[in-house]
Amino acid sequence: MALSGLEIYKLLAKTNCKKCGFPTCLAFAMQLAAKKTSLDKCPSVSEEAKNALESASRPPIKLVTIGEGEEKLEAGNETVLFRHEEKFYHPTGIGFLLEDTQSADELKKAIEEIKKLDFERVGQRIGVNLVALSCKSNDAAKFVEALKTILGGCALPLALMSDDPLIIEKALEISKDKKPLIYKATGVNFKEMANLAKKYKVPLVASAPTLEELAGLVKNLNTEGIEDIILDTGDKALAEKLWDLTQIRRLALKKAFRPFGYPVITFTKSGDPAREVAEASSYVAKYAGIVVLRTRLAWAVLPILTLRQNLYTDPQKPLQVESKIYEVGQVTDKSPVLVTTNFSLTYYTVEGEVEASKVPSFIVVCDAEGMSVLTAWAADKFTADSIASALDKFSIKDKVSHKDLIIPGYVSVLSGKLEEKSGRKVVVGPREASGIPVFLRNLGK
Question: Does domain 325-442 have CATH number 3.40.50.11600?
Answer without folding.
Answer: yes
